Amino acid sequence: MHTVTVMTRAGCHACERAEQQVERICTELGVEWSTADVDSDTEWRAEYGDRVPVILVDGKEHGYWTVEEDRLRAALSS
């Protein structure tokens, strides 16, 4: 079973859009998803801070800035 994490930041409108898209896709596919604030951890901020939102699938970076729906669905279906 896959898991998806959206690395976000408070006040980030692109992050809000990504969360809505990921929620819709994951709900349709029955996949667990969550969010994490990049500013809550110095390592996350260093790794992802300039590219939020960042989408992680099973803890590995899948994409950033936008949700590529077809690509995300393919990754979650494998």
TrEMBL record:
It comes from Saccharomonospora marina XMU15. InterPro entries: Glutaredoxin-like, Thioredoxin-like_sf. SUPFAM superfamilies: Thioredoxin-like. This is Glutaredoxin-like protein. Gene3D superfamilies: Glutaredoxin. Pfam families: Glrx-like. It comes from the Bacteria.
